[in-house]
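Narrative progress, year one. The postdoctoral researcher (J.K.) led the effort to move from monomer predictions toward full complexes, under supervision of the PI. The following entry was the first complex the group processed end to end, covering 762 residues in total.
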Amino acid sequence: MSVALVKERYSSKVGEVVLGATSEQGGTRTSTVTVGGDSALPYLHFEGELKNRPVIAMEVNDIVPTWNEAIMNQFGDVLNNPAAWAKKCVEEFKADLIYLKLNGADPDGENRSPEDCARIVKEVLAAVGVPLIVVGCDNDDKNNEIMAVIAEAAAGENLLIGLAEQDNYKSITAAAMVHKHTIIARSPLDINICKQLNILINEMGLALNKIVIDPMIGGLGFGIEYAYSIMERARLGSLANDKMLSMPMICTVGYESNRCKEANASADEFPGWGDLQDRGVLWEAMTASAMLQAGASILIMRNPAAVRLVQKNIADMMSK
Amino acid sequence: MALTGLEIYKQLPKKNCGECGVPTCLAFAMALASGKAALDTCPYVTAAAKEALDSASAPPIKAIKFGKDSVLGDENVLFRHDKTFYHPTTLLIRVSDALSDADVEAKVQEINILEFDRVGLHYSIDGVAVVNESGDAARFEKVASMVAAGTDKSLLLLSSNPEALKAALVPLAARKPLVGEATAENYEAMVNLAKENSVPVILKADGLDALNDLVEKAQALGYKEFVLDPGSRKPVETLANLTHLRRLAIKKKFRPFGYPVVAYTSHPEPLDEILEASVYVAKYASAIVLNTSAKAHILPLMTLRQNLYTDPQKPIQVEPKLHSVGEVNENSPFYVTTNFSLTYYSVEGEVEATKIPSYILPIDTDGTSVLTAYAAGKFEPDKIAQAMEASGIADKVKHRNLIIPGYVAVISGKLGELTGWKVVVGPRESSGIISFAKSQLM
């Protein structure tokens, strides 16, 4: 006897956002990346279209990072050269996008000038053909300064720039509007603030398809379930036609997972946790996999070995 | 759908005897409907009414118990934010009877030590799946008995040959293993064998239509202790099947699928396998049979399981008493934070990393983080002062310096007045503790 399956009928879908711009579109990218557009819950191909596969943006820093050696060693000698680092991520590790984090802008650190930051962005743009995500350091005021200059220097490239937050979104939104970029709207694990921020940004005149949601996440074992549920709710909201929750979601997987003790502590220190090599890779990869199941469209990752695993998991989930 | 009080009332004897402890049958019906009473307390309910009420009030997915405290199923929602997931995915490690005796023993050893401690929680692997790959009934029986002797964990005995299964099962029936698998070809022998030994049995068919037919036939044998296997071994298809089964059971109360579901990984490479399993932990598998048994592989998976099966309404808390990190002495720094497990363990981890033995006092904030607790009035100076008094910290250290989270710098003045201690404002995030300690405490 044939069973009548439950197939949900949704009234809407996740919004589609295009990142990057080719020369015809006013930029210099060799190709663009489109995310979102799904009309079903994650990977349920039987009830809707999973239009664009999720993508992986690999993290590049403007200063040599203090990551654990197991990750650093995989990059060889490029970590002090953002352009070469980015090139390696794209050519060798098949990153879909580059996420350039300008930690060097921090006034408490290198205190790099806005012009210097813009120069690095241009160098990375010249080194790779994929679209770029660019974010600043941990200082809001400095970020507003550098992002204004970067947005202008890369006008027309349709960068994905961040971060717009509830108490600091105007300057970056204005920069994105004037110079034709897309922005990351970050809310602190709170679906109401998430929605509110999208409304505020949209009221300034930036189109909804120029916004990507960063719901903030926790790493595996450290609050990932909060992000998981908020993202599931946002995804259901977008399918139920809540336009202010319908943007694709981006997750800082590499950052959050690699600050967990389990991704760094050696087996000598914690013999009960097993060998660090595989544990570290899985800590990042599983954080990514959980976020994919909750509806992530863009994963920001660090560890090339974890990227490889997640690429396979995405291929598994997108195969019909 | 759950019955309303009135629907239940119609089935009750309407004697209003009050022997159930509630004055009238109507009031008793209302109590039953809201889950506050049990039908067993009515001495006069008829058998027919009892059966009708039991089946109507049965959970959408039957709870299946086996082995050492393993419970499968009994879930009520599709999304954890709707309520919570109740019974964490049971994880079983596969042991083939085609392995040599030495390899079987080594594998069982490896499985037995899959126990983990992190953030104050203890995880241990649930059980072992003994699989009859040798095709030899005697070998299967021998390996099953070896595994059973080597571990007290839950057992799954898996063979498509009823004779082999019988040989392995009968001596181990007291362990109440889960057995399988019953298919369209062998289900009569398999289900009857399970029934005779009072153990649950896996029903396996290729696809949902065939599975529905098999469940109907198996139920007709007068047994209902089932676990379902929709047969798919391709991850995206398994995800679809797990979703269909859960949705039909919960949204439609479709009885043939009101049983827990087992999933099997298919990737040969262990890291790929763990990512595949993470999909099934997130989406509705009641049990997963895995190949890898390396600690480094199982810990991340068990952590994900613990995270997703946490009740969203009950944050995990640590005991709000004075904790010490390292070999503390009278000069040890003293930190105050909240008793939300994630907050506390983030702080504890960083304090440990400073290599300075320290005291940490988590304040009982009902398991909320610093900012949430402060906003809700649960992290107030008088409460912290009381907790300090109760903890006896004043007798343990000779200094009078108290470190508070940077986010609540605003309470410094009042807290200083109440306690007479010098309030030091620490970093906002636990990640700042190491540099804070370097600059302020060394």
